[in-house]
Write a structure and sequence with these properties.
There is one protein chain. The protein has about 375 residues and is of the alpha/beta class. The protein folds into 3 domains: about 130 residues, 3-Layer(aba) Sandwich (Rossmann fold), CATH 3.40.50.11750; about 150 residues, HypD, alpha/beta domain 2 (Rossmann fold); about 45 residues, no CATH class. The protein is built from 18 helices and 11 strands. The strands form 3 sheets. It has a 5-stranded parallel beta sheet. The radius of gyration is 21 Å and the shape is globular. The chain starts with a helix and ends with a helix. The relative contact order is 0.16.
């Protein structure tokens, strides 16, 4: 991080005031504090704005499983690659997934070998592909948290309404609260607080994090994405820890309502149901995934196609899993910035625009 940039950032009046208040709270606490952000956008903002360097050294900011592309297991990626290789199939996904390597190759390589892989900007684009190609199955790779999953639910419901029997979803969707539960029980992690995701929270509301606070005694603050949002949130977290409180607080009040987005959550619940899901680095978390309900089974790719990926494995030498659980930092990986770069990624944390390794590589080398 260029020192001149940090000096400019720290000297901005509002930032200077917030850093002073943060320093005072940390001094009153009298010990180091470990805070995990569980949002890829926060990870990027912290690195981009030099917040890690500007904050008091007693504050340890570590990145968690906040990048949906990164937490997608190799088994799920390999399954979609096998679907892409099927004849007369069009597969559709968002851009980041194309460059994520699976066990044998990635979607970019599969496309170069003849697979029909389309990059779409919304699930409605994938739905339109199904309308334009009635003789071919269109399979959308559903990767994302509660932020994007409602749009996929809407597309599935629309496909059912229109009778588009060639539109399918391969769901690798995940929900955030069960992951916080798993992290709270991770040996050796010893977190003091969670910096909770703004976008996800706008859908599910603050109450979703109550178990982390009430059952595990871990303070949670839902933060916005500007530097001042994050600094204000850190102040709120340190104050909670200093006072021995563990509550769910909302700094991002301009974007998060107490009840979240009821219309989105109702749509989500009507099309999907909870299922167990595998998270890279964490393993299988009960109830953390989203599977299509029986009523929408006709649009579930996993029910139509029996794909065997028993050969799937994680990339050799990659520690993305440990990075996603906050047990390691990118610099701890022997591949980081050497064998693994954004141009030639080994693991997903270097690929995604929300990935921890990509953030460190771009802003903290």
């Amino acid at each position: 991080m260029p020192l001149a940039f940090l000096d400019d950032f720290r000297s901005a009046p509002v930032v200077k005031t917030l850093l002073g208040e943060l320093q005072a709270q940390v001094a009153a606490l009298g010990r180091p504090i470990k805070i995990m952000e569980v949002c890829g956008t926060h990870t990027m903002a912290i690195s981009r704005h030099g917040i890690r360097q500007a904050a008091p050294r007693e504050i340890g900011l570590i990145s968690g499983p906040g990048c949906p592309v990164c937490v997608t297991s190799n088994r799920d990626i390999d399954t979609f690659l096998e679907l892409a290789a099927l004849p007369d199939v069009i597969t559709a996904t968002f851009g980041d997934m194309v460059r994520v390597p699976g066990t044998r190759n990635g979607l970019a390589e599969a496309r170069g070998q003849g697979a029909d892989v389309r990059v779409v900007y919304s699930t409605l684009d994938a739905l339109d592909l199904a309308r334009k190609h009635p003789g071919r199955d269109v399979i959308f790779f559903g990767v994302g948290f509660e932020t994007t999953a409602p749009t996929v639910a809407a597309a599935v419901a629309q496909a059912m309404q229109e009778g588009l029997d060639n539109f399918f979803v391969q769901s690798a969707h995940k929900v955030v609260p069960p992951a916080l539960e798993a992290l709270a029980n991770t040996p050796g992690l010893a977190l003091d607080a969670f910096l909770c995701p703004g976008h996800v929270s706008a859908i599910i509301g603050p109450q979703a994090y109550e178990p982390a606070a009430s059952e595990h005694g871990i303070p949670c603050v839902i933060a916005g994405f500007e530097p001042v949002d994050i600094l204000q949130s850190l102040i709120m977290i340190v104050e909670q820890v200093r006072k021995g409180r563990a509550a769910v607080e909302v700094q991002y009040s301009r974007g998060v309502r107490r009840d979240g987005n009821p219309a989105a959550t109702e749509l989500l619940a009507s099309v999907f149901e909870p299922c167990d899901a595998e998270w890279r680095g964490i393993g299988v978390i009960p109830g953390s995934g989203l599977a299509l309900r029986e009523e929408y089974a006709a649009h579930d790719a996993s029910r139509k196609y029996d794909i065997d990926v028993s050969w799937s494995r994680e990339p050799s030498g990659c520690i993305c899993g440990a990075i996603l659980t906050g047990l390691k930092a990118p610099a701890d990986c022997r591949l980081f910035a050497g064998a693994c770069t954004p141009e030639h990624p080994v693991g997903p944390c270097m690929v995604s625009s929300e990935g921890t390794c990509a953030a460190y590589f771009q802003y903290e080398l």
